[in-house]
């Protein structure tokens, strides 16, 4: 089965604004489409009302956006000749327009300047917004530096969103010949550990149940053929564990409970904390992408 938006519709949308973070996102998206096929749509959003108020009638924001897109298209085509590529600009608020366009896309890609060492409410707010409300999975791309990266890390819990994340993670790993690290993290709330003596440890049955969460998810996914799934269970804050484990990963995939018309007012807390301390490319996916990996892969082979 497939989710509401068929992942083989092959359109990857990347938002650009001329910034360095947007260019990093564009490079990541273009490389991905060039390797795996599909279409790349480069979208530049221009808030005409804000531009007119800020600069007055002498400034032409449409011409500026068109110039940015022309330069970007030439650079991408120079790097990836023959890529199925379109460019467009749209009037409106960037987050709103990106979310609107995501409703018909397979993947939405945006850049961020967020890192564990850079705090501040204005850094990375757009990725947080679109990841919570988009109609497709959202890839958020930070500054990756020159770190050698391998494996796909997937955050696992007992939710439907985690199953979507695992299925998507396996599909991503199959294209890169990577392993999937299925990571489940659990921790003891402070209120339950303040008065405990050092000789008191968790009941082994509880730890076994936590481990079973990962094993059940892998079993429910079913055979993954060439992709190896490595279960990992750690006693640590979930977001911290995922950020740390993904610091050298090719990709981190997390599910978000903060998706949908009502729930999307807030991004899920773990996804939020991951994106504000991002150390690798991150894909955020909701529970409506409950596709079975093998069926999706078969569809991709037939369509591409």
Question: Could you give the topology of this structure?
Answer:
Blueprint: E1 11-16, H1 20-36, E2 39-46, H2 48-55, H3 61-79, E3 85-91, H4 94-102, E4 107-111, H5 125-133, E5 138-141, E6 152-155, H6 160-176, E7 180-186, H7 190-193, H8 204-221, E8 229-235, H9 238-245, E9 251-255, H10 269-276, E10 282-285, H11 293-303
Parallel strand pairs: 1-2, 1-4, 2-3, 4-5, 6-7, 6-9, 7-8, 9-10
Antiparallel strand pairs: 5-10
Helix pairs in contact: 4-5, 6-8, 9-10
Domain UspA: 10-142, 150-285
Organism: Leifsonia poae
InterPro entries: Rossmann-like_a/b/a_fold, Universal_stress_UspA, UspA
Account of the 3D structure:
This is Universal stress protein. InterPro entries: Rossmann-like_a/b/a_fold (IPR014729), Universal_stress_UspA (IPR006015), UspA (IPR006016). It comes from Leifsonia poae. The structure is a single chain. The protein has about 300 residues and is of the alpha/beta class. The chain has helices at about 20-35, 50-55, 60-80, 95-100, 125-135, 160-175, 190-195, 205-220, 240-245, 270-275, 295-304, and strands spanning about 10-15, 40-45, 85-90, 105-110, 140, 150-155, 180-185, 230-235, 250-255, 280-285. The longest helix has 19 residues, at about 60-80. The relative contact order is 0.16. Residues about 1-10, about 260-265 and about 290-304 have low confidence and may be disordered.
């Amino acid at each position: 089965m497939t989710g509401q938006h068929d992942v083989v519709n092959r359109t990857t949308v990347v938002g650009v604004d001329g910034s360095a973070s947007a260019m990093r996102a564009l490079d990541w998206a273009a490389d991905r489409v060039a390797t795996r096929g599909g279409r790349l749509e480069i979208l530049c959003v221009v808030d005409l009302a804000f531009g007119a108020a800020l600069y007055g009638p002498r400034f032409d924001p449409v011409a500026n956006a068109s110039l940015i897109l022309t330069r970007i298209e030439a650079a991408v085509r120079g790097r990836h000749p023959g890529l199925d590529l379109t460019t467009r600009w749209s009037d409106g608020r960037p987050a709103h327009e990106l979310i609107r366009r995501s409703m018909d896309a397979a993947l939405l890609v945006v850049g961020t300047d967020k890192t564990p060492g850079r705090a501040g409410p204005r850094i990375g707010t757009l990725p947080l917004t679109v990841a919570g409300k988009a109609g497709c999975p959202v890839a958020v791309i930070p500054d990756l530096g020159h770190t050698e990266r391998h494996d796909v890390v997937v955050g696992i819990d007992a939710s439907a969103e985690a199953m979507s994340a695992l299925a998507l993670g396996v599909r991503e790993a199959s294209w890169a010949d990577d392993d999937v690290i299925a990571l489940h993290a659990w921790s003891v709330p402070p209120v339950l550990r303040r008065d405990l003596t050092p000789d008191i440890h968790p009941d082994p049955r509880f730890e076994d149940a936590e481990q079973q969460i990962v094993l059940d998810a892998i079993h429910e996914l079913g055979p993954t053929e060439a992709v190896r799934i490595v279960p990992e269970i750690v006693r640590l804050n979930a977001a911290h564990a995922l950020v740390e484990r993904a610091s050298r990963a090719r990709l981190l995939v997390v599910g978000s409970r903060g998706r949908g018309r009502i729930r999307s007012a807030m991004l899920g807390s773990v996804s939020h904390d991951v994106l504000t301390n991002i150390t690798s490319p991150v894909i955020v996916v909701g529970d409506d992408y409950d596709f079975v990996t093998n069926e999706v892969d078969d569809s991709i082979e037939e369509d591409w």
